[in-house]
Design a protein that fits this description.
elongated
């Protein structure tokens, strides 16, 4: 549930905060560095969400590198297409795990939580919770 919101926010901020020129057909689109920055923000959530944003940043770089007509670029575009299916599967798994935890009140699908940063751990839907040290 949190990934579509974050990806929508990324696209919204890209179109509102940064200039969106119409690219020339021969120039490749610029990869989204915001996705890489969002990946850095996932270090205190869980391993699945962290992998999701890292693989999404890699997907954008692959797609940007595949623009063109040479055979190497066509191959790179095909690799990016396969990588995109993997990203979609991880996003579906992460969203399903968060939804099941919210509905059933316990973690059913493993997402491998990471250690809290400065005694603060990020909840499933962006809520912060303080972690008590024993």
């Amino acid at each position: 549930m949190q990934e579509p919101l974050l990806l929508g926010s990324c696209a919204f901020s890209r179109c509102t905060l940064l200039p969106c020129p119409i690219p020339h057909p021969s120039s490749p689109p610029a990869p989204l560095p915001q996705t890489f920055l969002l990946w850095l923000c996932t270090f205190h959530t869980n391993l699945v969400t962290c992998w999701l944003f890292l693989s999404l940043a890699i997907l954008f770089w692959l797609l940007a590198g595949g623009v063109g007509t040479s055979s190497e670029r066509v191959t790179l575009t095909k690799v990016a297409g396969g990588w995109g299916f993997m990203v979609a599967a991880v996003a579906f798994y992460d969203g399903t795990a968060a939804l099941m935890k919210d509905v059933y009140g316990k973690q059913i699908l493993p997402v491998f939580p990471l250690k809290p940063v400065n005694k603060v751990s990020l909840g499933d839907f962006g809520t912060k919770r303080f972690v008590e040290q024993a």
